[in-house]
Amino acid sequence: MRSAEFLSKVFHPLAVLPVSALLFLNFSGLSLADSVYWIFLWTIISLLPTTLTTYYTGERGLNVPEREKRWKPFFVGVSSLALSLVPFWVLSAPDVVLKLGATGVIAITIFGLANYFNKISIHTGSIACAAALFTIVSSRAAAFLALSSVLVGWSRVELERHSLVQVVQGGVLGVICGLVFLAL
Fold first, then answer.
1. DSSP 113-152
2. Which of 48, 61, 93, 132 can pair with 88 through a Cys bridge, CB separation 3.0 to 4.6 Å?
3. CA 40 – CA 69 distance, rounded (Å)
4. Which comes out higher in pLDDT, residue 143 or 50?
């Protein structure tokens, strides 16, 4: 139970997203300094408001167990991320940054709609999305993330936060969202 709790906390979507985005930008050819710059801006404009909304919406800090309450963090997340693309465009962000942001808007919308109608594992989905993205820049990172998504899926079932079906649904949606990047 302790290892399941540990995995669930370490691989929380709000932690996975900035770290995986930073590494993805760097692996995509941006310098580390440029990657940090764009992720820092994104964190201030989008991630911070989303995290605060999640914190104040949830009963357990950053967990919002009732799917009926999840619309608030999703709405703030998709709105702030979409709005962040405007200053990114004005500041001449590299194409990979804009594509990653657009992919994020699409992914958050898909996960938000899926959670509105059915509870799915966002923990598993966010890592599966990152794994799909990393297939184009680092097969080793993609393999690590794919294995991590399986372990996190197990932890969500073990902690009785999700059923196996909800974990699989989250993983499949995550991979689909990650592949959206290739279509843009």
1. HHHHHS---HHHHHHHHHHHHHTTT-HHHHHHHHHHHHHH
2. 93
3. 28
4. 143
Spatial contact of 35 and 137, defined as CB atoms under 8 Å apart: no
Task: Please return the burial class of 96, using the count of CB atoms within 10 Å of its CB with bins 0-12, 13-18 and 19+.
Answer: middle
Half-sphere exposure of 135 (CA within 13 A, CB side): 14
Amino acid at 40: F
Q: Which residue has the higher pLDDT, 23 or 65?
A: 23
Which position has the token pair 């196996």?
A: 164
Average pLDDT, the chain: 89
Q: Would the pTM of this model clear 0.70, i.e. be above it?
A: yes
Burial of 17 from C-beta contacts in 10 A (0-12 / 13-18 / 19+): buried
Q: C-alpha distances in angstroms, 94 versus 52, 174, 180?
A: 28, 24, 18
pLDDT value at residue 1: 66
